[in-house]
Prior knowledge:
Layout: E1 2-3, H1 7-17, E2 23-26, E3 50-53, H2 59-69, H3 73-80, E4 82-83, E5 88-91, H4 93-105, E6 110-113, E7 126-128, H5 136-146, E8 151-156, E9 160-162, E10 172-173, E11 183-188, H6 190-202, H7 223-227, E12 255-261, E13 268-271, H8 280-287, E14 298-300, E15 304-309, H9 312-315, E16 328-330, H10 340-358, H11 371-380, H12 407-426
Parallel strand pairs: 1-2, 1-7, 2-6, 7-16
Antiparallel strand pairs: 3-5, 4-5, 8-15, 9-13, 9-14, 10-11, 11-12, 12-13
Amino acid sequence: MVIGGGLAGSEAAWQLARRGVKVELWEMRPRKMTPAHNTPYLAELVCSNSLRAEGLSNAAGLLKEEMRLAGSLIMKCAEKWRVPAGKALAVDREGFSAEVTAALEGLPNVTIIREEVVQIPPEGIVILATGPLTSPSLAESLKGLLGEEYLFFYDAVSPIVTAASLNYQKIFRASRYGQGEDYLNCPLNKEEYLRFYEALIQAERHPLHPFEEEKVFEGCLPIEILARRGVDTLRYGPMKPVGLIDPATGREPYAVVQLRRDNREGTLYNLVGFQTNLKWGEQERVFRLIPGLEEAEFVRYGVMHRNTYVNAPRVLLPTLQLKKETRIFLAGQLAGVEGYIESAAMGLLAGLNALCFLRGLEPLVPPPETAHGALVHYITDPLHDPLQPMNINFGLFPPLGLKIRDRIQRNLALSQRALVSWKAFLKKWVA
């Protein structure tokens, strides 16, 4: 029984079903929606449409390659629905989710049940993959089982605008350092930047509930919170102009807002790094101060939502099983990882280890030098209690044991070591 049809739950169900296991995949949408979802599709992407960097010089790229080698459904569908995004893997949001849904609906071993699960089933093998917006009733059931309080922070989502509403006389196409033309770039001079900055830090935000403490994941900070750290913070973050030359001036702009294609047709673009919790009317007012967005049509506003996860070092084994009840596996962001691809990777591991458990075999822990292993070792290490979720990065990997001064070459060496270990590890699993 897989509870939750997001990236992790979809991947877990796929890994089990294609190995002959009958799976019930429970997803409460569309019968009961969340504050962040808009469609009934499985694996809906609610924040960015980017699965982050490609290539083995990047830890996210390595994680995706490990998933490909393990026959990942998420990677298969992402490749089919990818859209231009420079050196990153971005997808047509709706096409990708529809593809995942169709793939699982087409598997005879998968039964998709569109109902809310309000409590943890008392028996049977269960994979909980309900994600950052776990329903309150199921969250209470899990809290009662664990005897632990949940940790939580907030995810913020970037707005999306229509391509037809943009002013292309002020926008230029380019990726950084001349690597293609996958992004739309809105250049700002110093005066325009300061006007935008002042409006942003003074704009009204949606209030949080009085019983909620704001704990924002550092990698997904709302842009208005980031801006309050200093007038130049944005120019060294989401609005950095480095590597971009404005053809109108022949120079780097003072600041840049990048737009990334959000669908294959190129009719929708999201504001890169502009996750926000501003009130909707304020988003229009402030973001239309950006050159090229003066008349932008917003088809989705940025929102901020609660993201729930367990304190994995206390309650979770490196096999993703609950210490208190090993028939129950956690996957995705609920397990304490952050990010789309990391969540799907934990779904892959949970699915394969649930298969081992079902067949009376010892569930396996991937080696720490692999990307999957680095993640599970991080989230379950007692040194990280209380847990702060983190994206995959090479800082989580054991050192190489030899000095390589060049960062790219060092990262490539870490990736090559990881892939050798990962391929050997995959052979241990039941085919």
